[in-house]
Amino acid sequence: MIKVNRYFPVGGPVSEDDLIDRELFLEGLTRRLSDGQNILLAGPRRIGKTSLALEVLRRLHREGYDVALVDMFGITSVRELTEHLANALLENRTGVQRTVEKLRDMVRAAHTEVRVSVQGIELGLSFARRQGSEMDLLEEALAITDKLIRASNTRVILVFDEFQELSRVDVNLPKILRSHLQQKPHISCLFLGSKPTLLAQLFSQGNEAFFRYAVSLPVPEIPPDAWSDYLVRKFSERGISITPAEVGVLLKLTGGHPQDTMLVASEIYYALIEMESQVVSLTVLEIAYQRALESLMRAFEELWGSLSEHQGAQQLIKKVAHGERPYGQNASPARVGRILTYAMNRGILIKVGRGQYEFFEPMFRDYVMRL
Description:
By secondary structure, this protein is an alpha/beta fold. The protein has 15 helices and nine strands. A five-stranded parallel sheet has the order 2-5-6-1-7. It has a two-stranded antiparallel sheet with strand order 3-4. Strand 3 (113-118) and strand 4 (121-126) form a beta hairpin. The chain is globular and about 60 Å long. Residues 35-223 form the AAA+ ATPase domain. GO terms for molecular function: ATP binding. Pfam families: ATPase_2 (PF01637).
């Protein structure tokens, strides 16, 4: 029987040990941020951007930098953003994830101004509920970085995940945040986002607040050889044998998509445990792939259903799945363009050339072709 110890990470950020062929990229990203550059990492979800950011923050924190990560996904107000930011910054000193909430428990009066000292950093936190005070609270949260740098004499590194959601919270927020950040040269920002066209607009158009504010870096693909080395090593740690041929089949099925490849590898592992086998065969691969596809079915159904909101979108995506070009003789270029933009923002398609598009996730292409 195979000994169960570790598994292939699926569904969230991965550890340093499971970041495949990322060392040079991580070193460069860490160096750029510590030197004061602002960086943009844009790309579809599930390619490992958050895992990279978390590893960079771990390294920088070990080197003595103050770090903070704010996930914009699900944030609905400036006040909520402010509390997330303040909590992340204060955690550098308190080690407590929800410092602001704990302070609020101590100060119940709705309009009380308090001054507290957190590990030698004096803070003024207003809990007033006036609508007009939200931007003042944001400024006060960002002012925590001034206090951190005075206390430690190091740069502050901020990571904003799903940054394209900023204007959804408040249409004026990008301009206000940019105005505050540019006055704080001790802050380096790493912006992450999963909607490339929206991010391109935010950082590349001259009338946008963050125009040319950050250097855009592509997240490199994981080379097949690196995948092969990783998979062979991980399986061998469990006493499982997999040949380069089987690895090649696995990567052809998943296209090297990071999360899908991990998912199929995980299903291989658990299928072998059930079968009490230690050899990956094509039969095992097929069983694992079908199980992985079934586990993704609900997500794929939701993604496919969202296309029905755009007239002709499902038909166009089917054309691309079957290798046809999206622009046909009778198609409206404007309508096709809108559908393609939506599909790229949802991480369905990627542009590979003039008028040429491919599925970002080959397993979703397989799902579409079976409809």
